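Protocol step 4 of 5: obtain the predicted structure for the target chain.
Materials: sequence only (see below). No template structures provided, no constraints applied. The aim of this step is simply to have a reference model before the mutagenesis design in step 5. Sequence pasted as it appears in the construct record:
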Amino acid sequence: MSSSRLYQLPVETTQWEFDGQTQIKFNWEYEDGSAELLDLYEKGKNQQWNASDRLDWSQELFEDNPMGLSDETVPIYGSPYWEKLTEKERKWLRWNLQAHSICQFMHGEQGALIATAKIVNTVPDMNAKFYAATQVMDEARHVESYKRLIHEKFRMAYPITDSLKNLLEQTLTDRRWDMTYLGMQVLIEGLALAAFQRIRDHAKNNLAAAVNAYVMQDEARHVTFGRMALRDYYPHLTDAERNEREEFAVEALYFMRDRFNQTEVWERSGLPAEDLNVIAYNSPISRNFRTRLFTRIVPILKDIGLFGAKVQKALVDMNVMEYAKIDAGAILSNDAKVADEFDKRKFVEEAIATA
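Step 4 output (structure tokens):
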């Protein structure tokens, strides 16, 4: 079925394209480069997986609550509007809110696919080109996985939100290779990991949880890729160059904290979208998510040396400076272990089924 038939808003009004700027960088030195990046490239090759085989697509989503998330995750839960909804209306809201989230993952992964292809073109280090090539395949697989979840299971789709679109466009239109790294590998991937984790750890539907667990295993390597490259590059920047990147990061941090919402669902619900946006923004689940999304971003900003006065002032203002103490490497390593646990569970279930 064509994707355009699944969208809840006309594709003609939401189609998006822009003139991205790219400066192609060839490198005739094939031996020199970061040994760490070469090791990461080996890991990237070894950890390739097939979404058709690793995931059991015979599983279905739950009828009344597709991913099996608690109602406390609905941003208007407990409000007068929620209390007045019938069970049929709550079922509609659960289905649409969860489909909307998965669609943003799908669109964001397409953005990552395009960004990583750009990194292959623009990054100067040959080993970085090698690893980025494996990430291109990873991102294609992620788009495929979320696409199947949308087309085969949810059977409905929402367009990219203006907020995600703006963040991607800022990242993809800068000609400098390190800005693509900073925007995608550190900020957007950090945001995505927090969103994926909520479903991986709390969804009772195994298919939905497994998709996010396996995607996170790859994303942990991608963030590590960004850390390695920028940690080596940023110490050589001038003060003016570093200030420019800090300003970009601070603007993106506030943008991510304040601008992501599900207005499209509220508008289709028949309820006053403006009121629901306010309720959702101030809900406990939204406040918690806005805080948690920085758990991966803050320690990485510190690790790559983009932790000057502007960045620290913003983190204090957002009350997330405490996350600078987190061991970024440990939390990323855990993402890989959790995915392996899903594999073990799958093998046990298959063994029981054939016994």
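Step 4 remarks: The CA atoms of residues 85 and 302 lie 45 Å apart. Residues 351-355 have pLDDT under 50 and may be disordered.
Proceed to step 5.
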